[in-house]
From TrEMBL:
Pathway: Amino-acid degradation; L-proline degradation into L-glutamate; L-glutamate from L-proline: step 2/2. This is Multifunctional fusion protein. The lineage of its organism: Eukaryota, Fungi, Dikarya, Basidiomycota, Agaricomycotina. It comes from Filobasidium floriforme. NCBIfam families: D1pyr5carbox1. It catalyses: L-glutamate 5-semialdehyde + NAD(+) + H2O = L-glutamate + NADH + 2 H(+).
Length: 549
């Protein structure tokens, strides 16, 4: 393709997608209700693989169940066979050159258009798929499938535009130095989680906007929303072989990709143990690859709230409830361990119990519920098993602690009070609506520092954390002590709710490579820079003045 580039284009100014409220009787609520009702009347959806833009049905399907009504399937997704996946990889690698050569402004336009389709024409459909398939209530679906995904695409385009502008600062006379941000040579495998429709979209978008081609292995538990996202990108003009949509058996699909010579990068979000396993598998294969694959992964957390005696107790409790129980605690950033001073515990506990009592739990299609179902049977068993283990370890259940899977996978918002700050529910990721509280003795000498040290050394994770205090000096101390305990650190705000363009997201230690989705740095990971030096002059003599005698 010959590409004329006759101007240095500027992308339109981007901003966060405005959040809609879905208040009673509002037009937005009616539209969303209609989209949910329509989707419910049509399920189960038959989800093909999409290879080179063509729908392919293999006949071997995996179900996506409705978390609030597990006898029904939202969708049945056709699994890619080894032959089909091999074809998908081959076509994507073949398509790489044309995609790489497409002018930047055209790539940008495709994803800006996709963002508009997400926030406009398909907003309610994507939200309905996220509500039914992943068990989100309307507000959580709005945060995720509408706002965050549009933000990822729009801000991503802006960040790449800015990245491309980063050029060598010096040119010696008669030369011009340039940096070109090439895509990786080969394909990127995106392995995406169930809990955010937006993360699925972003894990393929980030490499693709840099000129890479991708194989998308969606989570079986989010496959319908991911399928819609892929269709939207195609409608926006994405060339058909740039992203191949290949659902199927996770270990098999992933292994075939990782065992391929053209494998050039992994973009993963999910649990820590799976990420570590994939990293080791890639390391084992190092000799078969053309280069060193880029490995980008964001994984689990064991996120904390630390309260100082000077903190506003009521506000702190409200923040804890939102952080711990919104979307059933199934955000990687969800609050899981809470450190409360003894002098404030009676008040904190009273408000916490009163407020949690007000929470109703039920299907996302009934609007009043703050808490919905957890994603599926394995999650339900893990969460309820952890509550049992927490009790066995001496924890006292102060709210919730009950569950019901007769129709949907429901776990009551649970608070465990522990005397052992290193007990099982203080250390292991639960990924459900469970908060464990440890009450520290703030009358003790150095209690604040000791509690910070305890937080820092309790788990292998370092994803998110929050400190609440009215005293600036104590905030500063905590911020210094906890510097490495969280990649996203909040002062007097809850530990969830990172917004693209505002709080770049990611954690270190076992929580991931901390490449910060929603910022410029993630895009750099999918580039292999080329330094170009051009000389405007000519050389008349090979010898240097220092050679003269
Ligand atoms: N740090 C972050 O930004 C972030 C964001 C969202 C979720 N998460 C984490 O993700 C986890 C929850 O998501 P999940 O349940 O989808 O995670 P998961 O690890 O079960 O699945 C993630 C992806 O890996 C695939 N997978 C599962 N087993 C595999 C295997 N053996 N081989 C290859 N691929 C495999 C899944 O199909 C899915 O596509 C939590 O641990 C959460 O903290 C982290
Ligand atoms: N953006 C999310 C993180 C995604 C994790 O699942 C938050 O901070 O709530």
């Amino acid at each position: 393709m010959a590409n004329a580039q006759l101007a240095s284009f500027k992308i339109p100014v981007v901003d966060n997608e405005p959040m809609r409220a879905y208040a009673m009787e509002s037009g937005d609520r009616k539209n969303l209700q209609a989209a949910v009702a329509k989707m419910e009347s049509q399920l189960p959806f038959d989800i093909p693989c999409i290879i080179d833009g063509q729908e392919v049905r293999t006949g071997n399907t995996l179900p996506q169940v409705l978390p609030h009504d597990h006898k029904r399937n939202l969708a049945n997704a056709h699994s890619a066979t080894p032959e089909l996946l091999a074809k998908a990889i081959e076509s994507s690698v073949k398509a790489q050159k044309a995609w790489e050569d497409m002018p930047w402004a055209d790539k940008a336009a495709i994803f800006l258009k996709a963002a508009d389709l997400i926030a406009g024409k398909y907003r309610f459909e994507l939200m309905a798929a996220t509500m039914l398939g992943q068990g989100k209530n309307a507000w959580q679906a709005e945060i995720d499938a509408a706002a965050e995904m549009a933000d990822f695409f729009r801000f991503g385009v802006k960040y790449v535009e800015e990245l491309f502008q980063i050029q060598p600062p010096r040119n010696t006379p008669g030369t011009w130095n340039r940096t070109e941000y090439r895509p990786l040579e080969g394909f990127v495998l995106a392995v995406t989680p169930f809990n955010f429709t937006a993360i699925g979209g972003n894990l393929v978008f980030a490499p693709a906007i840099m000129g890479n081609v991708c194989i998308w292995k969606p989570s079986p538990a989010a496959v319908y929303a991911n399928f819609l996202t892929h269709k939207i990108m195609l409608e926006a003009g994405l060339p058909p072989s740039v992203i191949q949509f290949t659902p199927g058996n996770p270990p098999e699909i992933v292994k075939q990709c990782i065992d391929h010579r053209d494998f050039a990068g992994l973009h993963f979000t999910g649990s820590t143990h799976i990420f570590k396993k994939l990293w080791k598998d890639i390391a084992q294969n190092l000799d078969i690859y053309k280069g060193y694959p880029r490995i980008v992964g964001e994984t689990g957390g064991k996120n904390f709230h630390l309260y100082h005696p000077s903190a506003d107790v009521k506000s702190g409790v409200m923040q804890a409830i939102r952080a711990g129980f919104e979307y059933q605690g199934q955000k990687c950033s969800a609050l899981s361990r809470c450190y409360v001073p003894k002098s404030k515990w009676t008040e904190f506990e009273r408000i916490l119990k009163e407020e949690v009592k007000k929470i109703t739990v039920g299907p996302p299609t009934e609007w009043q519920h703050f808490v919905g179902p957890v994603i599926g049977r394995p999650a339900f068993e893990k969460i309820t098993g952890m509550i049992t283990k927490g009790k066995e370890a001496g924890g006292e259940i102060i709210t919730g602690g009950t569950w019901d899977d007769s129709k949907g996978f429901y776990v009551q918002p649970t608070v465990i009070l522990t005397k052992d700050p290193k007990s099982v529910t203080m250390t292991e990721e639960i990924f459900g609506p469970v908060i464990t509280v440890y009450v520290y003795d703030d009358a003790e000498e150095g209690a604040w520092e000791k509690t910070c040290q305890l937080i820092d050394t309790t788990t292998e994770y370092a994803l998110t954390g929050a400190v609440f205090s009215a005293d600036r000096t104590e905030l500063i101390k905590a911020s210094n002590y906890l510097r490495n305990s969280a990649g996203n650190f909040y002062l007097n705000d809850k530990c969830t709710g990172a917004v693209v363009g505002q709080q770049p997201f990611g954690g270190a230690r076992a929580s991931g490579t901390n490449d910060k989705s929603g910022s410029m740095s993630i895009f750099y990971r999918f580039a292999s820079a080329r330094s170009i030096k051009e000389n405007f002059g000519s050389v008349e003599d090979f010898a240097y003045p220092s050679n003269s005698v």
